[in-house]
# Entry
Amino acid sequence: MLRFLGYTPLNEQAQHIHKGGVTAALPSPPSLAGLSKAALGEKLVAAGVEPDKAKMRAEQLWRWIYHYGVTNFAAMTNVAKELRGTLAEHYTLARPEIVTGQVSQDGTRKWLTRFGPGTEGECVFIPDVGRSGALCVSSQVGCTLNCTFCHTGTQKLVRNLSAAEIVGQVMIARDALNEWPTQARPLNDGDRQLTNIVFMGMGEPLYNLDNVAEAIDTISDGDGISIGRRRITVSTAGVAPRIKELGERTGAMLAISLHATNDDLRNELVPLNKKYPLAELFDAIRQYPSLGNAKRVTFEYVMLKGVNDTLAEAKALVKLLAGVPAKINLIPFNPWPGTPYECSEWDVIERFAEVLNRAGYSSPIRTPRGRDILAACGQLRSESVKQRASERLKTKAEAEA
Ligand code: SAH
# Structure
């Protein structure tokens, strides 16, 4: 069953003017939530803070914005009242607008967020069995890669998300889970459900590396949101020339969407493979900084019935991964309307996993989560796009009637 979460629209502070019988919304002031320390300093200077004091003030604000998660300047009790007033005149602390928020029976939460007109993306929180849970964030709206089994590929790329929009997704989740500490309730790491971040939502993170790296700096900062770099995983379809750079710039964990063990099949499933074939991809993976037992590469392998799920392929996978510190995530294919693919049978997936386990790999089968709220990639957004299209048709029909 589906419940809708309450939500706070970004335009909380939007003002309305009434002119000649027409009501128009004025754009809200820009938000500081999600900005890097440097960008925050620049905004302070723009609001009139003396440049030589901006850095210190930015540090002060940082703690309020990212450690306590406050949503208004008035709460910043150690900031001079006058400055609080100036900030409130120029800026807000609003998060990206939440269009819908849903909670699945199994506790999975999904948000459709609007980053701007017609620019929607989604993020999903997946609670674990224990205390930990991962938030799956989007790095782009849409995607250019066109992997044949992925629904996002059927949508046009609209744009890269900014670092602030990526961080905004994490802030939305922490708001909803009520996991910002207060002075009366200092939450420790062990008290939180949201412990990990995975860049496995919409988009290809390595095509937006500057913003992803900036977002990771903000999310992992120990004076703020404080989700450590080892708890942040970036998943790529295999943009080989950027893989080493990702490790050097972010220190994040690496995940590779592999899905096939030979170039012919991978060319078909992940067309990016034609540009960066397996040999080149694995050369790049081997250069990822500080790989070892404590820092393994996660290989994602979506189980597609009759396509990539034979035992011979499981054995080929073991061979391919030789010498790479690896974990394997078997993902049951999540079907979407119109897809030609089906998910492998459960016993086929189990037998596939057994081959990997016998070779010494931990290969958890990712249990399908949040199916009742369409938590598969791209689904919620496209459902809402469809809905809007049908609303438009309805309005048109009504206008013509
Ligand atoms: N572009 C990045 C991150 C986004 S996709 C990447 O390719 O890694 C996150 C993961 O979900 C990828 O492994 C992707 O292949 C997988 N995926 C996409 N559509 C899926 C579906 N319908 N069912 C199961 N997994 C899917």
User: Anything to note?
Assistant: Residues 25-90 form a domain with the DNA polymerase; domain 1 fold (CATH 1.10.150.530). The chain has two domains: 25-90, 97-388. The longest helix spans residues 379-400. Confidence is low (pLDDT under 50) at residues 1-22, 388-401.
